[in-house]
């Protein structure tokens, strides 16, 4: 029988009523003839509670114990979901990560999936079981300890199962009904997309759209897993939600597909750095070693052999970045006058695979922001996206203006 | 290094403050030079919440899923305890049941322990780890599924580890400071015992004293594990609590060591049963098959070939007993006029290994109850205990009177 993977997030399984509702949804797919693999998150709030306890006990915790504690919420949901399905006469059982076993490396709290053997679950499908309920977010290390895949890791679990079992599709049920051209809470004209290319989804995810974990999109792209994002709170139909798929499966598309934003970016400026060959390596090497995710970089024009260097990184990494640069200065590797962190900024991005073949997108973006009086602090581009760092107070204005300018309220 | 097993119940680890307090207690034993195996329960209330959810979803639940769900609470405590110990610079790590692995049979929700390999944990002790924190109450079946040992099963986990690791002692920390001659909530003159024999503790546990799970005492007796029951809420000393040990290690003892009671017993009477050879087997066979735990049995004098048969069983099994007997009657295996259940009764028992060598204990018990005007409905005896079923309203009175009559307020 064809296999379907369905993933339900924390709000979709927040209590027993919602678990029953989700179970009915699963029953519909079983009735259509699918063998179903269900990936569940912890009931909403549970993981935060567990994480809170761990942080209260040990701010610098042993990640192996952290993983063992925080993975427990998913086990509860998996068992309750299997029981609910059985109660509806749907043959089901639960699997914890180590029972599959979903093998990962030993990078606790951010583990990478290495292997998902299919024999255990397929043997049960062959015996007549119709639904395998798998606890998301967790796996087991070569040392036999529980690992977790990072926050939002259940999305990645779902895609990995879809790839391993060659599923027809991987449906990600969440609390929004699909992927929008921008955040509907900011722009009421935001429009749900029927389809979006993997590459675009990947950019949108990493730029702040919180619909899917970035790694899950990477994985779906690599294994060509058809991903569908849809709401667990609406009556489902066959064309519900947004299909994330290969570019070739999208007939027409706008040049720009979506506008993303992030408030979690900070602008850091190193003032008066000695400008010499290798200075960029001397600055960004230590930052990389300290685990700082530098996004945008701008080097000012040099004057008298000195220059200002500006970069952006997640707000939560500002302290770490400051320490890494101070340490580098103490070791004599770099030399600067001052380091200024500005956290009152936001990043706004336009994303679209159409940019590859159409020029003038950047120019239109800059013109639109200029017309609104928004000053651009830093710019970065990739093949299919343009991002700008602006004052945070202009963020909503910029999102509105760009959404209109690129005609995103109208279907392609 | 000598091994000590310490077990902490749900109220002892109810929140992070209590977990810290318990961790300090563990640190004291580590400082004395012990390698410590700590068995933890779920934080109090957690297991009941999980059990409640399972029952709400599926009153006739799949015990394999039940076990998978309800075992999660212990995993959380184990991880939090390991983190707390690490924070105090005590080298520690947690183990879930399947990681040890604590192997059980496949009797889900009431599994029996089959094997506890010591190599994994001993290897870590050899590397310098000082505390192994083990999630209590759980194990893994031959099929690789999670099993649980029944309510109170963490006591049994603790004793099994003490046996497997040949521990010097197994300390059971709970919310009472030892084993009493009777329940101090009923008789203020109740006295804490310094020592009690395994056989006596076994009778007291199975007769309703809720200090230790009965199976844990059986196991301690079989492997001669020294068990100590003590409070986690008091400053510990070397002679704190009550030591449960072999009879030979107790110098002097009262003839009767303790008075136990249970309100959870019902009296069932089959009225006018045909009295023929094999009738007892015809009645108690079906009850046994239905899982009814029959305790006391009385057969009245036969008249005109018919008799009344009275027995007691746990109150919660009354419905099951009625159904088993009705089914047997429908199959024509037995024939009775009526079946009357009386749940307004209580069982009061006197226990003591001294009874073996001293006669007249039963007579003194009956005389004491007669003097108080308490009517005895059913009697049962074993080598070291006498139990009577009486009207529930006389229960406290009977406990008081017997406690006085056997001089239990005075040390032996």
Automatic annotation (TrEMBL), chains A, B:
What PROSITE patterns does the record tag this protein with? ACT (PS51671), ASPARTOKINASE (PS00324)
Annotated residues that bind substrate are located at 47, 74
Q: Which Pfam families match?
A: AA_kinase, ACT, ACT_9
Q: To which pathway does this protein belong?
A: Amino-acid biosynthesis; L-lysine biosynthesis via DAP pathway; (S)-tetrahydrodipicolinate from L-aspartate: step 1/4; Amino-acid biosynthesis; L-methionine biosynthesis via de novo pathway; L-homoserine from L-aspartate: step 1/3; Amino-acid biosynthesis; L-threonine biosynthesis; L-threonine from L-aspartate: step 1/5
Q: What UniProt keywords apply to this chain's record, in alphabetical order?
A: Amino-acid biosynthesis, ATP-binding, Kinase, Lysine biosynthesis, Nucleotide-binding, Transferase
In short, the EC number is 2.7.2.4
Residue positions annotated to bind ATP are 7-10, 174-175, 180, 185, 210-211
Instruction: From the UniProt record, give one GO term of the biological process aspect.
Output: homoserine biosynthetic process
**Keyword Nucleotide-binding applies:** yes
Transmembrane feature ranges: none
GO MF terms here are: aspartate kinase activity; ATP binding
CC per GO annotation? cytosol
**Enzyme type, top EC level:** transferase
Q: Domain ACT, which positions? A: 268-348, 350-412
The family classification in the record reads: Belongs to the aspartokinase family.
Q: What is this protein called?
A: Aspartokinase
UniProt source species: Roseovarius spongiae
């Amino acid at each position: 029988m064809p296999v379907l993977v369905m993933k339900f997030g924390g709000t979709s399984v927040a209590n027993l009523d919602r678990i029953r509702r989700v179970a009915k949804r699963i029953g519909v797919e079983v009735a259509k003839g699918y063998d179903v693999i269900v990936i569940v998150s912890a009931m909403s709030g549970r993981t935060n509670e567990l994480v809170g306890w761990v942080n209260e006990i040990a701010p610098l915790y042993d990640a192996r114990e952290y993983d063992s504690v925080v993975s427990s919420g998913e086990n509860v949901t998996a068992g309750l979901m299997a029981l609910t399905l059985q109660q509806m006469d749907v043959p089901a059982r639960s699997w914890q990560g180590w029972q599959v076993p979903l093998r990962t490396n030993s990078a606790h709290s951010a583990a990478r999936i290495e292997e998902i053997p299919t024999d255990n679950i397929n043997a049960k499908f062959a015996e007549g079981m119709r639904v395998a309920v798998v606890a998301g977010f967790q796996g087991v290390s070569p040392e036999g300890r529980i690992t977790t895949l990072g926050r939002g890791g259940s999305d990645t679990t779902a895609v990995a199962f879809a790839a391993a079992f060659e599923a027809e599709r991987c449906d990600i049920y969440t609390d929004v009904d699909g992927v929008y051209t921008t955040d509907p809470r900011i722009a009421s004209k935001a429009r749900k997309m029927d389809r979006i290319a993997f590459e675009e989804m990947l950019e949108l995810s990493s730029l702040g759209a919180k619909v899917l974990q970035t790694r899950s999109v990477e994985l779906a792209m690599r294994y060509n897993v058809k991903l569908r994002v849809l709401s667990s709170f609406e009556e489902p139909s066959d064309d519900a939600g947004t299909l994330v798929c290969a570019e070739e499966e999208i007939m027409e598309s706008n040049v720009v597909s979506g506008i993303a934003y992030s408030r979690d970016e900070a602008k850091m400026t190193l003032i008066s750095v000695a400008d010499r060959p290798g200075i960029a390596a001397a600055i960004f090497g230590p930052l990389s070693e300290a685990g700082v995710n530098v996004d945008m970089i701008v080097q000012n024009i040099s004057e008298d052999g000195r220059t200002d260097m500006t970069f952006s990184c997640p707000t939560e990494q500002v302290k770490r970045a400051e320490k890494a640069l101070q340490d580098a200065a103490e070791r004599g590797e770099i030399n600067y006058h001052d380091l200024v962190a500005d956290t009152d900024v936001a990043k706004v991005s336009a994303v679209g695979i159409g940019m590859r073949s159409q020029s003038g997108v950047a120019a239109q973006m800059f013109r639109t922001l200029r017309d609104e009086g928004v000053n651009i602090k830093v710019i970065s581009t990739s093949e299919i996206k343009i991002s700008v760092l602006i004052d945070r107070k202009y963020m909503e204005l910029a999102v509105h203006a760009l959404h209109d300018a690129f005609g995103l309220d109208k279907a392609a």
